């Protein structure tokens, strides 16, 4: 029961406070990671693995130690705060809703600026449908990275698990690139993130299917996910696009070059309503996870008293 209550408390904190505006813990961690990278970087995988351990290991081990020695009336609030810091549910809406609002009013320039805060692709040349597709894809993918992944690892390993997942996800975003600078150094960060996301991504895809158009989501997941470069983003975005009946993927510009990407989903061309439906899908999925968490908690409690 404690796990389910902490999950609820963390989600309510996220709903109430959103991401910290000042001194975000992940921003501070990013600065530490840059400092470590500056001192360990070399074109070798072992250096990247060592840097990853130096950045993540001490924090996770320190939290595990604190959680194991303090009484529950201290450890539970600490766990709720840690989980809250790893979540970004409200932030998804705060980034995506301005894109939808700008598209609804026909302000394409503002929509491009807003979606540029969400994605790494070039946004200046995107048309209305491409802007909507970029925002919808970001919501669906980050539903896993910023919400369900953290909830899964918290349910499995408590606050240290949620922290481990979120720090690994952050390092993947910093180092996990296939560039000359990071191809070897960032290999460990990318592979560790893939491993930690393997189960959560598929649970997220299943969640999207259950909370949307199940038949289309399931078909898109089975037929389209394997075509995507990322083994975890593929199932998440294919199932999510199918669940909200929208066509995603296709050409997108990166660093001045248009790259053709596999198709995702099925149905209408993306627009402002696609973004709104994707946000609703993620939020409905969170409610489903909370219901399951409390049902499991009550079942375990019942068995314990049987």
Please give the structural blueprint.
Elements lengths: L1 H16 L7 H16 L4 H25 L2 H15 L2 H16 L3 H8 L12 H48 L11 H25 L2 H11 L8 H11 L3 E3 L2 E3 L2 E3 L3 E3 L6 H33 L2
Antiparallel strand pairs: 1-4, 2-3
Sheet of most strands:
2 strands, antiparallel
Query: Which strand-content bin applies to the residues?
Result: under 5%
Rounded Rg: 20 Å
What is the total tally of β strands? Answer: 4
How many H/I helical runs?
A: 11
**Unreliable residue runs:** none
The whole-number mean of residue pLDDT values reads 93
> What class do helices, strands and sheet pairing give?
mainly alpha
Characterise this structure.
The protein is mostly helical and 306 residues long. It has one domain (2-304). The chain has 11 helices and 4 strands; from the N terminus they run ααααααααααββββα. The chain has helices at 2-17, 25-40, 45-69, 72-86, 89-104, 108-115, 128-175, 187-211, 214-224, 233-243, 272-304; strands at 247-249, 252-254, 257-259, 263-265. The chain has a two-stranded antiparallel ribbon with strand order 1-4. A two-stranded antiparallel ribbon has the order 2-3. Helix 4 (72-86) crosses helix 7 (128-175), helix 7 (128-175) packs across helix 8 (187-211) and helix 7 (128-175) packs across helix 11. The model has no long low-confidence stretch (mean pLDDT 93).
């Amino acid at each position: 029961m404690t796990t389910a209550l902490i999950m609820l408390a963390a989600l309510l904190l996220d709903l109430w406070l959103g991401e910290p505006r000042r001194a975000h813990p992940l921003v501070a961690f990013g600065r530490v990671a840059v400092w470590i990278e500056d001192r360990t970087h070399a074109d070798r995988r072992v250096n990247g693995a060592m840097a990853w351990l130096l950045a993540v290991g001490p924090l996770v081990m320190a939290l595990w130690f604190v959680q194991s020695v303090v009484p529950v009336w201290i450890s539970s609030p600490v766990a709720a705060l840690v989980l809250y810091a790893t979540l970004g549910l409200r932030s998804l809406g705060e980034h995506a809703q301005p894109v939808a609002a700008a598209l609804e009013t026909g302000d394409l320039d503002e929509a491009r600026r807003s979606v540029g805060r969400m994605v790494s692709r070039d946004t200046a040349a995107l048309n209305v449908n491409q802007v909507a597709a970029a925002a919808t894809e970001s919501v669906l993918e980050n539903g896993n990275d910023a919400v369900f992944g953290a909830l899964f690892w918290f349910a499995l390993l408590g606050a240290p698990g949620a922290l481990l997942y979120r720090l690994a996800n952050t390092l993947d975003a910093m180092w996990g690139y296939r560039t000359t600078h990071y191809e070897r150094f960032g290999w460990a960060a990318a592979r560790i993130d893939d491993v930690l996301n393997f189960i959560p991504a598929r649970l997220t895809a299943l969640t999207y299917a259950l909370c949307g158009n199940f038949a289309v989501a399931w078909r898109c997941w089975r037929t389209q996910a394997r075509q995507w470069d990322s083994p975890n983003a593929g199932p998440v975005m294919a199932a999510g696009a199918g669940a909200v009946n929208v066509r995603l993927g296709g050409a997108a510009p990166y660093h001045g070059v248009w790259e053709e990407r596999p198709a995702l989903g099925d149905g209408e061309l993306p627009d402002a309503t696609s973004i709104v439906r994707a946000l609703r899908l993620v939020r409905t999925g969170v409610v489903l996870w909370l219901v399951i968490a409390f049902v499991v908690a009550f079942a375990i409690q019942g068995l314990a008293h049987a």
